[in-house]
Amino acid sequence: MFLDFYKLREQPFGVTPNPRYLYFSPGHREALASLFYGIETGRGFLSLVAEPGMGKTTLLYQLLQRWKGYVHSAFLFQTQCDSRELIRYLLDDLGLKSSGEDIVRMHSELNNFLFRETKAGKRVVLFIDEAQNLSDKVLETVRLLTDFEAPDQKLLQIILAGQPELAARLSRPGLAQLRQRIAIQARLDALPPNEVARYVQHRLRVAGYIGSELFAPGAMEALAERSRGIPRLINNICFNALSLGCAMQKPRIDAAVVNDAAGDLSMDYSVPRPVSPEKQMTRGVTGGLRPSPQSVYGRIRGMFLGHRLFQTSVLLVALSSLGIYWGTRTRPAIAQPADVRELKSANSLPAPASETASARRDARAADGSTSQSILKSDTGARAVRSFTYVVQPKDTLRELCVSMLGRYDNAVRAEIRQLNPNLKNPEHLDPGQEIRLPLSIKN
């Protein structure tokens, strides 16, 4: 393992969405603020579109975390279904009993539930992930769900999240009615090269890395090009690059190592890579497959073959991997994004200007009144760029500002003090306490 070689406490490029490693790029912060605003103002239909691996599901969980205690939510991942199954999945996730046969009766049960929740002051939000897989008929059923409404508000908020195919589907003439109802369309774009570097540095710091930059500038450039700025691909390349760098005893990862790691993962989408006979999987004398000596793991194996302790090393690695496996199986999951405060690399970044500021201002003016829920918009000169947030257990002002603004510096603290003149101790927040937070900061 490369953890000891690079002095890391834990694996920085894992495949599971650990909230401690969550990195809010300007695009993620803008998408989160847009969806937050859409739910706050009861816009009804919202959408989030992103390439696979961009972290849209993780962002939805963060959005839900911010509304915890004040929103009754349903999260649907099973999108290969018909209309009846969709309604049954929705009722089951909301904790309602359904026979699963009579769709009219299920609609009646859902309508009664929505009225009860609205009367109790709670919002009901339906998250549909991988929505690009829904058939046109089921999408029409989803559209009809927004017909559950009171004279002054929608009873159900719906967020459709999916890959770019979802946007293409919604542009079809047959889905014009659904497309017209989507009030806010958020999008996550690939990370630009400078954000790729910040993303990698953030994850390394959270994993305990201390020292000069582990990836050389040329390596970062190669990583940005090969990964196309997609976080999931960045993680895969970095993991293999660190593995190969450790085997080669390289204290710093250079561009050649990154290119080798990316090439072995077949992530070069621009130039076809010819497969040489040495590169292909070949059969040994015993008939078993052995990896190409040019692949990452083939090269690691080849470096060990020259040592008499190869078998001992393999045994130790196997035992270590087994221990890590069982450790991850038995370690309790961390649900709170409490360590997002470790995102220090974005503290110096200016908060991105909202591309939808004027649209939000017009929408708020059209509403004519502030939201009646626990989280309500502020009026006056600061209405567009601030909102009232109800503090949840374990919330800190630092993590709230980092998650919404990507920073927690003197400018942010000054704005917080101006918005909250009665806030005596910003470092101590009580659950249930209401504070005003800015949606953006102008330097």
3D structure, described in words:
This protein has 443 residues and is an alpha/beta fold. The protein folds into three domains: 26-188, 3-Layer(aba) Sandwich (Rossmann fold); 192-270 and 288-303 and 332-340, Helicase, Ruva Protein, domain 3 (Orthogonal Bundle); 350-438, Membrane-bound Lytic Murein Transglycosylase D, Chain A (Roll), CATH 3.10.350. The chain is built from 16 helices and eleven strands. It has helices at residues 26-40, 56-66, 83-93, 103-119, 136-145, 164-170, 176-181, 193-206, 217-227, 231-247, 255-264, 296-305, 310-330, 357-367, 397-405, 410-419; strands spanning 45-50, 71-76, 123-128, 149-150, 153-154, 157-162, 182-188, 282-283, 289-290, 386-390, 434-438. The protein has a five-stranded parallel sheet, with helices on both faces. Helix 1 crosses helix 2 (56-66), helix 9 crosses helix 10 and helix 9 packs parallel to helix 11 (255-264). The longest helix has 21 residues, at 310-330. The radius of gyration is 25 Å and the shape is globular. Residues 267-297 and 304-384 have low confidence and may be disordered.
